Amino acid sequence: GWAGEGQGSGGKSRHVCHAAARLEMGSLWEEFNRLGTEMIVTKAGRRMFPTFQVKLSGLDPLADYVLLMDFIPLDDKRYRYAFHSSSWLAAGRADPAAPGRVHFHPDSPAKGAQWMRQIVSFDKLKLTNNLLDDNGHV
User: Fold this and answer.
1) For 60-78, what is each residue's pLDDT tens digit?
2) pLDDT for position 128
């Protein structure tokens, strides 16, 4: 599965230099990737499926951590799904990148021990393509 891991000190705080994240439900994410998409957005609630869940390790159990999620564009293209070929096709240039919005995990801040005790789920995250959204959607 996917893992993000801090290697050595390299200027990183001792509280994060050994932090690692292991993606839960990795096989489902791989299946989505094999089919040509990373996720779907459910119509009801604008929630992402599969839900982004990770198991964290290597945190300082007594330190406070804030977890957040951010999305950044992979490229400058707009895509549409072609049902006849079951694939995504580039459909021109995307809108200029908007200022990033981040989603803070609702349990933030919390001690490292709490984050490592259970799977961390971003199931409350809601997505939008509305640049003027003021409902806290990412």
Assistant:
1) 999 999 999 887 777 888 8
2) 73
Q: Which domains does the chain have, with CATH numbers?
A: 20-127 (2.60.40.820)
Alpha-carbon span 7 to 16, nearest angstrom: 9
What region, left, alpha or beta, does residue 84 occupy, with left being phi > 0 and alpha being psi -120 to 50 degrees?
alpha
Element (H, E) at 90: strand 87-93
Model-level pTM?
A: 0.71
Which one-letter amino acid corresponds to residue 38?
E
Place of tokens 């009801």: 44
Q: How many CB atoms lie under 10 A from the CB of residue 95?
A: 10
Which two tokens mark 125?
Answer: 């995250």
Contact 56, 19 (CB under 8 A): yes
* Beta-ladder partners of 3: 22
Q: Which helix (H) or strand (E) holds 57?
A: strand 53-57
Decide: residue 56, CB within 10 A, 0-12 exposed, 13-18 middle, 19+ buried.
Answer: buried
Q: What residues of the chain score a pLDDT lower than 70?
A: 1-12, 38-45, 97-99, 129-133, 135-138
